[in-house]
Write a structure and sequence with these properties.
By secondary structure, the chain is α/β, with parallel strands linked by helices. It is built from 8 helices and 11 strands. The strands form 3 sheets. The chain has a 5-stranded parallel beta sheet, with helices on both faces.
């Protein structure tokens, strides 16, 4: 089945450009012209991913993200017309998976969406075999179930965050630089800044702190990141 994408922007022309590119790539598209319409549309029918403009009247993209994150981990790609990384990082910190700045290339947008969707693992209908579980002390990661727990408490990660954690959990004694982490979390044709990777790492750490893990990822200064002793 084709992936269902909800495109949210108050500019009809931008919605149409994005929709055309996504449909050409074999995806199904729904549109919403503002934040409130987007929330209502998602509640009526879930989507596999949201393309969400930050700057909208009534209810902006950040508010929409906060509202949806109360009940869903649906991947979110932000659009922003502001050349200001503070907005982008804030979007990632509240639960976004990626961002694209306007004006953008429809081809790049499709590539980023495909990269996010590749990282979204469907939940298996059958119980996962023990070999699927990566167990590191109190940390358990199940790639097949898209599930991470700390001391048996679920940690709700976005698709991007989950992909990064899997990489570190599979190689607990190895230090990964940002380029390697980027290749794991993003399509090779997609470039993201070091600050974006750092923001995702910071967000993963915060989510584990909330379930009692003081530090899940160590920073090796001048090199990169590794899984902390669990």
């Amino acid at each position: 089945m084709s992936k269902q994408i909800l495109v949210v922007d108050d500019d009809l022309h931008i919605r149409e450009v994005i929709s055309f590119a996504l449909e050409k790539a074999g995806m199904s598209v729904r549109q919403a012209g503002d934040g409130r319409e987007a929330v209502q549309s998602f509640r009526e029918q879930a989507a596999d991913l949201l393309v969400l403009d930050i700057n909208m009247p009534e209810m902006d993209g950040l508010e929409v993200c906060r509202e949806l994150r109360k009940t869903s981990n649906v991947p979110i790609l932000f659009l922003s017309s502001r050349d200001d990384e503070i907005d982008r990082i804030l979007g990632l910190e509240i639960g976004g998976d990626d961002y694209v700045t306007k004006p953008f290339s429809p081809r790049e947008l499709v590539a980023r969406i495909n990269a996010i969707l590749k990282r979204t693992q469907p939940v298996s209908a059958e119980p996962s075999p023990p070999s699927d579980h990566l167990i590191r002390g109190k940390l358990m990661v199940s790639p097949q179930q898209h599930l991470a727990t700390w001391d048996q408490q679920a940690v709700h990660l976005t698709a991007t965050e989950f992909g990064m954690l899997i990489l570190l959990a599979r190689h607990p004694n190895r230090v990964f630089n940002r380029d390697h982490i980027m290749q794991q979390a993003y399509d090779n044709q997609v470039y993201v800044s070091d600050r974006t990777i750092d923001s995702h790492i910071r967000h993963i750490r915060q989510k584990f702190v909330e379930v009692g893990c003081v530090n899940i990822i160590d920073t090796v200064h001048g090199v990169g990141y590794k899984l902390a002793p669990c």
